[in-house]
Amino acid sequence: MQDVVKAATGMQAGRGAKARVLDQLRDAIIRGEHRPGTSLSEGALAEAYGTSRTPIREAIQQLQSEGLVEVVPRVGTFVRQPSRRELTELFQLKAVLEGLGAQLLAQRGLVAETELLQANLADSERAVAAGDAERYAQLVHDFHGLIIQGADNHMLAAQYDNLMHKLAYHRIVVNTLRHPGRLEVSLAEHRNVLDRIVGKDAFGAEFAMRDHVQSSQREAMSNRSDAEN
Q1: What is the pTM of this model?
Q2: Which residues of 71-85 are buried (b: 16+ CB within 10 A; e: fewer)?
Q3: 215-224, pLDDT tens digit by residue?
Q4: β-bridge pairing 76-79 and 39-40
Q5: 94, 123, 133, 146, 163 from 209: Cα distances, Å
Q6: At 72, which helix (H) or strand (E)?
Q7: Mean pLDDT of 75-95
Q8: Helices marked H in the chain — which ranges?
Q9: Cβ of 97: how many Cβ atoms within 10 Å?
Q10: Which of 43, 96, 102, 134 satisfies CB 3.0 to 4.6 Å to 209 for a cystine?
């Protein structure tokens, strides 16, 4: 009986290590700590995360299925850069999902997420006034996440999480916020979206959010060269 318990405990520990490594490595890629084209060594990652190579290998397989890494046989594993077409398609889907989220939240009226969005906007105004792009990038992440959360639709939230993993959106936001004037424009777009939500203008909120995502897409695509198809 003790052997069975030990075996079960070992399996749980193994699954726990895999989940921990997967979450941490995915987050590092999304946040730009491992930039596109960077080689990912199983040995170096195992040492960095204090684990064996098995959880690293399993995490890489999952991240490959999510489109975040590319495994080249007999060459190595690399952080993947989405093609121009893939990025366009991902942004198109993002506009649909977030537009729906804004519409559903506006229909719900004043709920907890609405108040959190108002607080987020106030913090964002202070970050922009201080020129703190790093802080603002985190607030952007929170703003969009609160809209999806406030939509109160579990299927929407699941699809959105999957999309954001593939898009590595935080990395994109950090890059686009370096563009002159983008901080102020993004803040104004967030304010417009929230005004429509608070005013219970469901369709206005949806279209304001779609416009905001399309604006972000234009900024992101301006960083890409024509050679990146």
Answers
A1: 0.75
A2: eeeeeebbbbebeee
A3: 999 988 886 5
A4: antiparallel
A5: 10, 20, 21, 13, 16
A6: strand 69-72
A7: 88
A8: 2-30, 42-49, 53-65, 84-108, 112-129, 133-151, 154-167, 169-176, 182-198, 202-221
A9: 22
A10: 102
Which pair of tokens denotes residue 135? Answer: 């802080």
Cβ atoms of 174 and 32 closer than 8 Å: yes
| Percentage with pLDDT > 70 across the chain | 90
Domains of the chain: 2-79 (1.10.10.10), 84-221 (1.20.120.530)
Q: Fill in the amino acid letter for 130.
A: A
Give the C-alpha separation, 90 to 106, whole Å.
Answer: 24
CA nearest neighbour of 161 among 9, 36, 27, 46: 27
105 and 99 Cβ atoms separated by less than 8 Å: no
User: Quick check: 136 and 177 in contact, CB under 8 A?
Assistant: yes
Per the CB < 8 A criterion, the answer to whether 37 and 82 are in contact is: no
Q: What are phi and psi of 72, to 5 degrees?
A: -105, 115
| Residue found under tokens 């590092």 | 28
pLDDT in tens, 8-25: 344 444 557 778 898 898
